[in-house]
Design brief:
Blueprint (H helix, E strand, L loop, with lengths): L4 E5 L3 H12 L3 E5 L3 H20 L5 H10 E4 L2 H5 L4 E4 L5 H14 L5 E4 L6 H4 L9 E6 L8 E6 L5 H13 L3 E4 L9 H17 L5 H16 L4 H8 L4 H9 L4 H6 L10 H15 L9 H18 L4
Parallel strand pairs: 1-2, 1-4, 2-3, 4-5, 5-6, 7-8
Antiparallel strand pairs: 6-7
Helix pairs in contact: 1-2, 2-3, 10-11
Bound molecules: nicotinamide-adenine-dinucleotide (NAD).
């Protein structure tokens, strides 16, 4: 493997989990954040994730100790980036902050270091707008929880070189990720667009009184969600069309969906009051019906999710 030294620049929720991902794949990881308190938080999160991997027997004692040994924490920018061949930027989702982070990184990093940005939806071209070397900056958008979700969406900015993109793809692949490269920049990339489309209709069904928050969640989990964990909309369609495959599905069943599309939500801002009046009480009610094993609060729920993801990743041959 070419890349041995990686830096996570900004180690909140996403930066810490990237750190764990990189550590279990054997590279040296420097974790940078603004001050000692932030680094202490990051260390606690990273320790909890590594503990989880040990509990799930993904790491044995020796591998766990080796991961701990390869993690270095610092709030000194120069120290953080000077040896890195790949820098994953995970600062706040704010264009001015991202631009200033790039400036800071470029002051001290190696001339040929690649910079991947975790941005959820900002344009890489804008993030790299004032960079000395915009050609080495790529979008590398992960999914939460980053250490357990293989997807990384790669985006080229106006000035990103093909060489940097290819190197980033190869690096992420070595880190166990499943890279998907966008052919062009678009807001929200691939999966956040799909996610908000599904969410909009879920919220709409609740707002119209068609079903409760709990029932729409249940319908997704025990219906399409189970399939989506294994295959995407096109392969689902291939099987859904029987002998005729996706062509039959689209040609013969597709037209009947016109009336549904016409009736579906088209709003572009979350309706006022949805969070306070529907989502929050709906989630509270849903959690009441769960068990300690399946998660009655955020912490239990995240643990239950992570255990399930490990099983699914093993099924996919990804762990
Ligand atoms: N939360 C998600 O589900 C998610 C998923 C995918 C991508 N992202 C993206 O990842 C990035 C980080 O998100 P997060 O949820 O980890 O946020 P976060 O607030 O948890 O972490 C941001 C970190 O950046 C640090 N920071 C602030 N200013 C900085 C600076 N100038 N230099 C370096 N570090 C600085 C903060 O101290 C903090 O630790 C964002 O761009 C976000 O859009 C988030």
């Amino acid at each position: 493997m070419g890349i041995k030294n990686v830096t996570c620049f900004g180690t909140g929720l996403i930066g810490s989990a990237w750190g764990v991902n990189f550590l279990i794949k054997g590279v040296n990881v420097t974790l940078y954040d603004l001050d000692e308190a932030k680094l202490a938080d990051a260390k606690a999160r990273i320790t909890a994730m590594l503990d989880f991997y040990k509990e799930m027997k993904v790491l044995d004692d020796a591998q766990y100790a080796d991961c701990v040994k390869r993690a270095k924490y610092t709030s000194d920018v120069k120290e953080a980036v000077k040896d890195a061949e790949f820098i994953q930027e995970n600062g706040p989702e704010n264009i001015a902050i991202k631009q200033s982070i790039i400036k800071t990184i470029e002051e001290y990093c190696k001339p040929d270091a690649i910079i991947g940005s975790s941005t959820s939806g900002l344009l890489v071209s804008d993030i790299a707008a004032y960079a000395k070397h915009p050609e080495r900056i790529v979008g590398g958008h992960p999914y939460n929880p980053v250490h357990l979700i293989p997807l990384v969406e790669l985006v080229k900015g106006k000035h990103t070189s093909q060489e940097a993109l290819d190197k980033a793809v190869a690096f992420y692949r070595e880190m166990g990720k499943e890279p998907v490269v966008l052919n062009k920049e678009c807001p929200g990339f691939i999966c956040n667009r799909i996610q908000v489309a599904v969410n909009r209709e879920a919220y709409e069904l609740v707002l119209r009184g068609v079903c409760t928050v709990e029932d729409v969640d249940k319908a997704v989990v025990f219906g399409p969600g189970l399939r989506w964990g294994l295959m995407g909309p096109h392969l689902c369609g291939e099987l859904g069309g029987g002998k005729g495959g996706i062509k039959f599905l689209l040609d013969h069943i597709g037209p009947t969906t016109k009336a549904w599309y016409e009736d579906m939500a088209t709003w572009t801002e979350i309706p006022e009051g949805y969070a306070a009046n529907y989502a929050v009480p709906g989630v509270a009610e849903e959690l009441k019906h769960r068990t300690p094993g399946t998660g009655r609060d955020d912490q239990e729920l995240a643990k239950w999710r992570d255990v399930g993801l490990v099983q699914l990743l093993k099924y996919h041959g990804k762990l």
